[in-house]
Design goal:
Elements (H helix, E strand, L loop, with lengths): L2 H4 L14 E2 L5 E7 L12 H19 L4 E5 L16 H12 L3 E4 L11 H8 L21 E6 L13 E6 L5 E6 L5 E3 L6 H18 L5 E5 L4 H9 L39 H9 L3 E6 L8 E4 L13 E5 L14 E8 H4 L4 E7 L4 E7 L15 H7 L2
Parallel strand pairs: 1-5, 2-3, 3-4, 6-9, 9-10, 10-12
Antiparallel strand pairs: 2-13, 5-6, 7-8, 11-12, 13-14, 14-15
Helix pairs in contact: 2-3
Length: 399
C-alpha cells in the first residue's frame, strides 16, 4: 500500500477525528505519554476502584500542568487478567474522560496486560472508537500483528493540502503484544500465551512504508516511535551502565524485561529459555531508519531513563546508530511499584528538527519536573541533575 493510500487515512466511524495533527503557529508540538495505567485491577476489592480514581487524578493533574497536542497511552491501559468478558473494556471510558473534557485527542499502543482471556487489543480498539478524538489505528492486517500498528503524520501549521504537503514529523506506533490470546484455552484448560514482540509482518510494513514515504517526498522525514515492551537493546544498554548524570532517571528494574523474554528461538514458551531473539528484525529496522530520533517504551515501571544507542554492545548482533531509547514514568496506581506517578513529556520544535533534536522531561503528580534533557547529538555526554528516587518517600506519604 502506498503512503498516499494510508496517509491521514481515517476510519469510517463517525467518532473518528477528521483533522490531522499540526504544529502550533509558533512551531511547537507537545506529547504527553502515559504508561502502564492498569485500570480495572481487583475491581472486587475496595482498593481496586480506588486505584482507578487515583490514576484519573494523576492524568488530570498532569494535563492541568502541561499543554499537549496529543496524549499517548503507551500500553497496559487495563489489567486484562482481572477483567470479565462482559465489562473488560469499560475502563476505557474512565481513562479517556479527562481528555474528552479537554477536547484532547489520543493515540494508543497496546501492552501485554491489554491482551488476556476476557479483553484484547481488538475489543479495546473498538471501545476507543466509541469516543471522539481517538486516533489509534490498525494499518497491518496480518493475523499475528496485533492491533495498534500505525503512524500519524504531523504537518506544518500553514499546510493547506495534506495530500500534497510533506509531513514535518512521523509518529510510529507498534504493538508488542504479549499476554494471552482472547477467549482461547489449551487442551488442559490453560490460557494460551501470545508472543511478546513486534511481529515481523509489522517490521516489514514499517520498512516498506517508510521507504515509500522517503521516495514520495524525496526527503528523510524525522520521526518518533512508541512501543510498550522495550527491545533487547534497552537491556544491553542497562547492563553497560546507566549513568545518573548523563542518562538521568530511575533505574530500579534491573534487569529490565525485554521483548521475546521467556521465549525460545524456535518460538516456544515452555519456560526453558530466557530470551528468544525475535525482536532482532525490529532492532535492525530501528537502527536503519534515518531520522528516527527516539523510541519510547513502558512496561518496566521502575525505569525512567533515556539512553543513546550508538555502538555494538555485548549480547547484541545489531549496532546502534545513535537512536535514543527512552522509558516513561509509571502513570497508574494499578500495576506493581510505589514510585511517584507521572508522565513523560516530549516537546518537538520545528527549528530543532533539522538537527534531529527533541526536548523531554517527566512531570510528576507532585507537580515537580525531573529528567529534563535534550535528546541531541551530544546526549549521553552532557550532564544533567540526577533524578531523585521517590519510591520510599512516596510510599510513606500515601500510607
Amino acid at each position: 500500500m502506498s503512503p498516499r493510500a494510508v496517509l491521514c487515512r481515517q476510519s469510517t466511524n463517525s467518532s473518528e477525528v477528521s483533522a490531522p495533527l499540526r504544529f502550533t503557529d509558533n512551531g511547537t508540538f507537545q506529547i504527553s505519554i502515559f504508561e502502564d495505567l492498569h485500570f480495572g485491577e481487583n475491581a472486587w476489592d475496595s482498593w481496586g476502584p480506588e486505584q482507578d480514581v487515583n490514576s484519573t487524578r494523576v492524568v488530570n493533574e498532569i494535563l492541568d500542568a502541561e499543554s499537549p497536542g496529543l496524549v499517548v497511552f503507551n500500553g497496559d491501559l487495563i489489567t486484562g487478567e482481572n477483567t470479565f468478558y462482559e465489562n473488560g473494556t469499560k475502563y476505557l471510558d474512565q481513562i479517556v474522560a479527562p481528555l474528552i473534557s479537554r477536547g484532547l485527542s489520543w493515540a494508543s499502543t497496546y501492552g501485554n496486560h491489554d491482551y488476556s482471556f476476557n479483553v484484547t487489543g481488538a475489543t479495546i480498539f473498538a471501545r476507543e472508537h466509541l469516543w471522539p478524538n481517538a486516533r489509534t489505528q490498525q494499518m497491518v492486517s496480518d493475523a499475528n500483528a496485533g492491533v495498534s500498528n500505525y503512524y500519524l503524520p504531523l504537518y506544518d501549521a500553514k499546510c493547506s493540502d495534506d495530500d500534497e504537503c510533506a509531513p514535518e514529523l512521523l509518529l510510529w506506533f507498534f504493538d508488542s503484544r504479549g499476554g494471552f490470546l482472547y477467549q482461547q484455552l489449551d487442551v488442559d484448560g490453560n490460557q494460551v500465551g501470545q508472543p511478546n514482540w513486534v511481529d515481523e509482518s509489522v517490521v516489514n510494513w514499517f520498512n516498506e512504508t517508510n521507504t515509500e514515504m522517503v521516495q514520495r517526498f524525496n526527503k528523510t522525514i524525522p520521526s518518533l516511535a512508541f512501543v510498550h515492551i522495550p527491545t533487547n537493546a534497552s537491556l544491553a544498554l542497562q547492563e553497560a551502565g546507566v549513568d545518573a548524570r548523563t542518562e538521568p532517571g530511575i533505574n530500579d528494574d534491573v534487569p529490565l524485561a525485554q521483548q521475546a523474554q521467556g521465549w525460545c528461538p524456535n518460538g516456544t514458551d515452555d519456560r526453558t529459555c530466557e530470551y528468544g531473539g525475535q525482536d532482532v528484525p525490529l532492532m535492525k529496522a530501528i537502527t536503519s531508519t534515518a531520522g528516527l530520533m527516539a523510541v519510547f517504551s513502558g512496561h518496566d515501571h521502575g525505569d525512567t531513563w533515556c539512553y543513546k544507542w550508538n555502538s555494538l554492545l555485548p549480547g547484541l548482533s545489531v549496532t546502534g546508530n545513535g537512536v535514543n531509547l527512552c522509558f516513561g514514568q509509571h502513570s497508574g496506581y494499578g500495576g506493581y511499584g510505589s514510585w511517584e506517578r507521572g508522565a513523560r513529556q516530549v516537546l518537538i520544535t520545528q527549528s530543532k528538527l533539522k538537527d534531529l533534536e527533541v526536548d523531554t522531561w517527566i512531570r510528576l503528580e507532585s507537580g515537580n519536573v525531573v529528567g529534563s534533557v535534550c535528546l541531541n547529538s551530544t546526549y549521553g555526554q552532557d550532564t544533567y541533575a540526577e533524578t531523585p528516587d521517590t519510591t520510599k518517600q512516596h510510599a510513606l506519604e500515601r500510607q
